[in-house]
Amino acid sequence: MPCPRLATAVCGLAVSASAFTPATRQPVRLKPLGISNLLNRNKKDEAEKPQLDKRGFPVGDPRSKGGTEQDIGLQVGPLMWRWPTQWPYPPDFYDVECNATALEYFKTASPAPVFSASDLAALHAHFERNVPKGGVVVDLGAGEATALPADFDVQEIWGVSAAAEQMAGNERLTKKVVLDLNDPSVKLPFADASVDVVLCTNCMEFLVEPVAAFREVYRVLKPKGACQIAFVSKGAYDNGSGERMAKYWGDFTDAQKMYVAGSFYQFSGGGWSQLKGYDLTTDPASQKVAEEENPLQKLLNRGDDGKKEEATGLFVVSSVKAEAPPPDASPMRVMQYELWDEPALLPDERRLCTERLYALFQKFGAQKQYDMAEASVEAAKELGNLYTVLEPMRKVLPVPIRALLIANLAPYMAAPKADKDAIVSNLLEGLGLTTPQEAFWKPVGELTKDLAAEDKIWLLVDFVPCFGRLDLFGAKLEAFPKVLASAKGVVESAFEGAPLSATEAQLLAVDLALSDFLLLDEPTDAQEAEEAFLGWLAKLCRPELAEILATRKAFTTSAKAAEKAAAEAKM
Prior knowledge:
disordered N terminus, single chain, 9% strand, 43% helix, alpha/beta, 20 helices
């Protein structure tokens, strides 16, 4: 007898996220990935918060601007960033005081920070070291001047900004495009992979839809193209432009703003690489702190025109668009690449789905189901559609559960001869997002109504792909509700007078009906398969059924034990 499947029914699933326990079972069909560990992968033990300086960097942080010649001023290297599973900022994070649109505001306003000569020289030197030469440059949020050195070799510089008046006086710009970068529907006027460099200099503080804007940046950049976000401390602005700046700008430290800038990359595309944060401030931190603490000194440091003459905090957060994998790349890299540009997936969902799809690839390959192994690689292309379909469940299904469900269904969407529309429609019915079939989902849901929510999800993994191949499973699916009801009756009769809960009876019946009727290859005739299954089930005695149930329940027990051991190991 094949190992019982760990499946359940899910008709009109209506559960809260709290219904999913951190420790869930590991599927029989897949190489175990430890879902409970995935749930906790991004959780960090609470550590003592370090004492911060005035700009928010830990006290004692090196300010020598040392490191390699290429990475002068590097503060945060590619491996030092830590991200949550979802966009971490509240809805009002990017609110602005000004009600006017960016196009309206910049007709009269001209917010421009004051750079010291030394800071501007440091920024020019950074661009000389880190910006590719001889290509097409886009100055995002362009104004009266472009921050590249005067003799920097470029093919052309496009200015893209809402500040038409300011761009008009910028002689460095080859072409000028007036756009509201805060309109998420706006597309940059460039073909895919046609731009070498994007500069975002003193622009991030005015963005209220940064993820949408940087998805466009990612789209237009060539592979190995670079993006440089440069910003200054909030004190560098003296012309009352705060009303147009995002809410966080006046509250966050420079170090926190560096993290915010990094999140633009992290949450806009999966193909960003070499994410780095630089502190290019040229004045010593102690001088900056002393000046901030002495209002009189601020006045003394102004020239006749009232502008600041002292240096300001200057920071850059940069990243590079990764190249496509070579033709001989591993399946894992191909899957990752296919998900780079998928906007429907969060970064953690890309990772979880890739790991799950790779496990399926290995499983199908070991079983010599080479068509399904290939489908597991191609399945990455189906994930975006499935995530869009499940968008109404985003607040109900936790990220790992949603990734697990979708990644397990996707290979069957990509499989030869699969009916994708039937798979999607039955997924919606099974989750209760559309009216379920009277003949199937309603009776199956009633027969499994006491099962745990995470177990109900697994029924979708088993059932839904079968609807994509009605030529193979149509007759068995039609008979399944009756077979499941009979199996449940046999199980309850076998345990008559013994302690067996409704949940246990349903769990055992559905596992057996799935593994030994619906998913069993032989016999192929539905009537013959039904008679064979029910005849075999009737011959099983209570101890045998109890052993099967204990095996089934052991998955959850072992997962909880692993969860506890992992937690203790961190202590």
